[in-house]
Structure formats: C-alpha cells, structure tokens
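sorry for the late reply, my laptop died twice this morning and i had to redo everyting from scratch. anyway the thing you sent over, i finally got around to it. pasting the sequence first so we're on the same page, its 316 residues, then the predicted structure underneath. double check i copied it right bc i was rushing
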Amino acid sequence: MKPIIYITQKLPEQAVAKLRDSYEVRMWHDDQSAAPREEILKQVKEAHALWSMLSDNIDRPVFEAAPNLKIISNLAVGHNNIDLEAAHDHGVMVTNTPEVLTETTADLTFALLLAAARRIVEADKTVRSGEWKSWTPMGMTGQNVGGATLGIIGMGRIGEAVARRGQGFGMNVLYHNRTRKSLEDVKYAALDELLQTSDFVVLLTPLTNETRGMIGERELSLMKETAILINVARGGVVEEAALFEALKAKKIWGAGLDVFEQEPVPTDHPLLTLPNVTVLPHIGSATVQTRLAMMEMNASAISACLEGRSVQNRVC
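ok and here's the structure:
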C-alpha cells in the first residue's frame, strides 16, 4: 500500500505529478475553496503527509487525529498557522518554503507602497466610474516616494530586498529588528524613533506572541500625519480597530494592507469603507513562477521525509 499524501487545496497537476508514482495523492477537489476543517480531520486519519496552506489551522486536534502523520509541508514561509509544540509532541516534521519567495514578495510590497502613496486604485476607480470630469491642480494628489524615509520593521530576507528597492528610489532607509545587521546605507532605529521619523512604515515581521498587536493605538499615534502604513506580514501584527480609528481621524495619511486578522476579510470590515486604504487578498508571493517553485519545495520535502532522506527547510 502506498503512503498517503493529503493536499488541502487543489494544486496544478504539474506540482503533484512526480508524487503520483510512489504515493497515493489525495487532494481537495475545488479550486475555488479550501478543504473545510472536518475534511482535513477526516483525511489525516490515514495520511502520512499533509500538504497544508497558510489558511489552514493545523492545531493539536489535527495531530491527535493523525496517527500515521510524519510531515506537514506548508505552502508559505510563515508557519503561525501550525501548532509547532503539538507537532513536536507527536513527532511530526514541519517544513516551509523560505527564500524562493523573497524577491517576489518584495516586489509586491513595493508595488503596494507605490499604489497607496499615489492613490492608484482610487484613481482607477475614478476613471472607470466616470467621476473624472477634468484635470485639477490638486486632484488625486498623493505622497512622494523618492527621497522619503522608509522604515522597515522586521529585517529578514524580504526586508533586505525591500530596502534595496527603496534605495533604488533614493529613499532613506531605517530598520528595526530583534538583532542588528551590517547593511550598507541602512540605519538601525529603535521602534519609536522609526515610527516617528518614517514616511512609510513597512511591516515584515513574523506573527509571534511578541509581535501580535505590536502596532496599536500608541504606536500609530507616534507616526506622522502624512505617513503610510504597509502591512505584508500577518494581519495580527496590527490592531485593526486602532488602525481604523487612526485612518478615519486622519492621524496617519493612509495604509496598504495585503493581510488581515481574518482572511478572507469580511466585506463589511470597517477598514474597507475608507478611501485611504489600499487592500489586496494576501498575494505577496503570487506569481506563477514563485508559487510553482514553492510547490516544488513542498513536494521535495514530502518525498524526502517519506523516503527517509535528509529534509530541507525544516522548522520543526
């Protein structure tokens, strides 16, 4: 009997084809939705490997329902959706997909920064709706990017890639991180200093107990009235209610959000009512090339584990 691999969302056939000869591949059938929790709990009863997505909540009950499970390979660099303590307790390996998505996510981060600064989405809607009647001297004016100060919170691989892009635009780049780094023309700053002096604050931290809610009412009050907050980390890093109030009261100028506390974000979410918020559906790594490369890393990790070979990109 072949070992069983369960995949919680439908993936392109080219991503799973190499696994089919050696394993029984079971995959959620609908490419417009994710496997519901009850289906995951059902499938892990027999699965030897679970190929999970960042939207899956892989908590202790999942491990308790999975006596044969040897590995979970997560289609993301982040792994806050997986209970690593439970994985360790049950002897289950966990892997992720680092590095391959660095440049792609940095591209998206900077695109979101530019879109928020220059009101790209708002301007597009103005044209399509027929609201654009004539050119006006201050119509759709945004904020300068070139020459502005970019503050990056979380200086990992993606943070460094965003810093390089900022330097290409002639920006003054600051960063705040748990550990200081030797980076050319990039200055370390304490968190409060970074918030007070940056024109753009970009969040790139993982979601941990320490970073959850790290940007709240106090931190937002330190930012310039002309500042823009960009979050491509995880929604939980920002207190969304506090962000809504700061934006509504124009205590900060705008925000660009690729992530939310709840995803998909409810259509009646208060932040979606504000014109100075640019939103995306968590697409940081969403290019064809990068997603396929991430899937290749997942497939390689699963086959290596099930065949008793050395496994790359382990987080547990």
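The CA atoms of residues 255 and 277 lie 5 Å apart.
thats about all i looked at so far, will dig more tmrw
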